[in-house]
């Protein structure tokens, strides 16, 4: 088993873009390993080498979409102080952190298995949510809608999957309730089978009966705009639009 793990670690260099980019550091890596091993009291055998060749950077890299959407949603929930929050299919790391200060029901077609105070995993399908109409006061669905119906996650192909998904989100939000959504924004298209990219106005049209209370943006350069315009979103190629909707009273 250890031999397989060793092979997997080194083969990853040949099939990982960051690994390939760091191959020029192999001679330095080998030299450092030899020098470290000769001075270390702890064993450092070659069979346990684990080459990380692309991490010695001046700045820590991060995914701007996921970093800023988590920070944006956390701040809005901290301000709104809901008694309970529900998330549909978003990043598990984000919902785990949110559950530290607000109880979160986390619904996913592939439910996570965990026992974390404040977090309640539930199985569910965004295309047919098993919740009563107008029953959820605080709801989020971040970087999810763009995938629905493309088959990427084993779901059935459905060119209108995003429309069904947004209709379900709008249905279950309570009157006066908050819905937080993020999707790729910019030049509108389908990048099959990864995701869709929407214009700002298309996203608004997908949620009739809901008022857009706030819009933030992560642009193509990874810069965060706490308050953005439709024009800024549509000028992107692959930005991240952060939409705060409020459901109008019925």
Index terms:
8 helices; Rossmann fold; 250 residues
TL;DR of this structure?
By secondary structure, the protein is an alpha/beta fold.
Structure description:
This protein folds into two domains: 47 residues, no CATH class; 184 residues, Rossmann fold (3-Layer(aba) Sandwich). With 250 residues, it is of the alpha/beta class. The strands form two sheets. It has an eight-stranded mixed sheet. The protein contains eight helices and ten strands. β6 and β7 form a beta hairpin.
Using DSSP, what is the number of strands? 10
Tell me the distance between the termini. 61 Å
- The residue fraction in helices comes out at 25-40%
Order of strands across the widest beta sheet?
A: 3-2-1-4-5-10-8-9
């Amino acid at each position: 088993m250890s031999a397989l793990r060793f092979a997997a670690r080194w083969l990853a260099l040949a099939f990982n873009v960051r690994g390939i980019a760091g191959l020029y550091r192999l001679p330095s890596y080998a030299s450092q390993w030899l020098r470290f091993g000769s001075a270390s009291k702890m064993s450092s055998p070659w069979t346990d080498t684990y080459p990380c060749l692309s991490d010695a950077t001046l700045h820590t890299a991060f995914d701007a979409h996921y970093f800023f959407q988590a920070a944006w949603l956390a701040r809005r929930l901290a301000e709104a102080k809901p008694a309970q929050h529900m998330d549909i299919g978003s990043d598990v790391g984000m919902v785990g952190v949110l559950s530290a200060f607000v109880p979160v029901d986390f619904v996913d077609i592939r439910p996570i298995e965990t026992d974390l105070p404040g977090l309640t995993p539930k199985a569910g399908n965004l295309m047919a949510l098993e919740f009563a109409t107008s029953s959820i006061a605080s709801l989020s669905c971040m970087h999810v809608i763009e995938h629905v119906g493309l088959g990427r996650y084993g779901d059935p192909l459905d060119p209108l999957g995003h429309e069904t998904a947004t209709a379900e989100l709008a249905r279950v939000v309570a009157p006066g309730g908050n819905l937080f959504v993020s999707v790729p924004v910019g030049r509108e298209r389908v990048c099959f089978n990864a995701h869709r990219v929407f214009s700002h106005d298309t996203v608004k049209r997908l949620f009739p009966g809901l008022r857009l209370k706030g819009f933030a943006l992560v642009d193509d350069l990874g810069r965060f705009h706490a308050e953005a315009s439709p024009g800024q979103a549509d000028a992107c190629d692959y930005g991240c639009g952060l939409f705060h909707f409020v459901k109008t009273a019925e």
